[in-house]
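I am writing to request your help with a piece of structural work I have in hand. What I wish to show you is a protein chain and, alongside it, a tokenised description of its three-dimensional fold. Could you please explain, in whatever detail you think fit, how the structure tokens follow from the sequence? You will find the record immediately after this paragraph.
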Amino acid sequence: MATIVRARGIVLAGAAAAFAGLLGAPRSAAAQAQPGISGGPSTSIRVNGEAQFRYVFDRRWGGPPGTDSANGGFQLKKVRLVFSGWLLTPKLTFRVRPNYDRTTGTLGLDDAWAGYGSDAGLRVVAGQFKPAFMREEVVDVFNHLPVERSYVADYFTISYTQGVEVTLGGHRLRPSLAVHDGSYGANTDFSADRSDYAVVSRLEWLAAGPRSAFASFDGWSGTPPSFLLAAGADYERGQVRTGKGSPDVFKYSVDASFAVSGASAFAALYAQKFTVRGDATASLPTSLAGARQTGVVLQGAAFATPDHLEFYARFEQLNFRGVYYRNNATAIQTGSRNLATDRFRAYTLGAAYYFARDASKLSFDVVLSPDPVPVDAGGDGLLRNDAGRQLVVRTQYQIRF
């Protein structure tokens, strides 16, 4: 498997180099040495790298029979090359970001899209991406406070999918609308996703301050009092297939963010409802029909030393209403089932030291969950826990260049 992954990586790198050569004139050695690679007046290609290296320790009380109560080890959460730039005109942009699956070792794609932006603020993106739905997904994971996004956001996410998104980039109001293939629709053929059709919309209102204040969850030095309020809604029409059906899903998010020099705060509410139709019932948990699930995230942070040492705290709660379900056809879907309990809570306390803001950052945090965890959530460090509590300690260094 490792040989296959290396071979795919070599092919991808070679294809990118050939693509760059076809688009522009031959480049000088000096031009090739620059982070941004110019292919002449009609093309600009930039190659960046990013990585997150972690040590995670998990201690659980009440795990499934035959599992270890304590687990610890290193994790390469994200190690990626990012290809981006523009073609023919700076208004026509693109982004390609390969990523590998930590479970299977196979290479796939996160972002793979082309976009067009007008002088009037209209932006159209087509391909594979994360549609704008919740702020915890709109903001890149490298610009978050804790080591990982919240468990709640990871449960309600649309994640990567394929489609077309239109955004009106106004200063105060910023609406967006996307037609897509449904949650977890990435790297699938048109006949292999789990939704007949899906549509999502998000509206952001910048009440005060600059938009740049919300490119991350930090209150960087010099940030004036800034406030952002937003809401999103997503509807996915499930496919009715005996043994492989999926429900209709309607979910929404409401979030509020505040930032000022030295401090920040964030709050979000998520909810979703499932509707089961026809033969889809045979492949779904019996408690799913009509289930209404909700989740909440509260987070705050303050710098002890400007732009360097920051302390943060987060609380999250998810009400499963007796069922666990993700609209995903891959391995994570096998965890879908009726639950004996309804509530999940997690408390996170941590600190981060920024060497060069989010481009070079060392983080340490502790996560305590007093409730059962339905399935493994490797990104969070939380493992399946049928009863009792769980403690996770995480340390991470991240770099972007």
